[in-house]
């Protein structure tokens, strides 16, 4: 009984227990393995955009993990839209903090938060032009 109560208390105090979940695994795998092109809009610094296709998309998709993270109070750094054969699959807004980042997806009326790898956060930060 004590373990059950402690589990409930931990869950209620956790910042990601109910409020933040990663993109469902099936959707994440589709994003990672089946998207054929993507557009990135950078909104901080001087801004800018990238359009990628083919192998570059696969490389870029490695910047995101199928795990969630706590959202931080930082400004939106940009937007990303993934496509499969020219049709939008999913899009999300990405955020960068000092040494990490995450992306927020809205799919089927639900919000999902996926963690960015350290390499991903470094890449996005290197693209910011002052």
The count of strands amounts to 6
Order of helices and strands: HHEEHEEEEH
End-to-end span in angstroms? Answer: 56 Å
Low-confidence stretches: 12-17
List keywords for this structure.
130 residues, alpha+beta, 6-stranded antiparallel β-sheet, 29% helix, 34% strand
Mind explaining what this structure looks like?
The chain has helices spanning 2-13, 25-34, 55-61, 118-126, and strands at residues 37-42, 48-53, 76-84, 87-96, 101-107, 110-115. It is of the alpha+beta class. The chain has one domain. Strands 2-1-3-4-5-6 form a six-stranded antiparallel beta sheet. Residues 12-17 have low confidence and may be disordered.
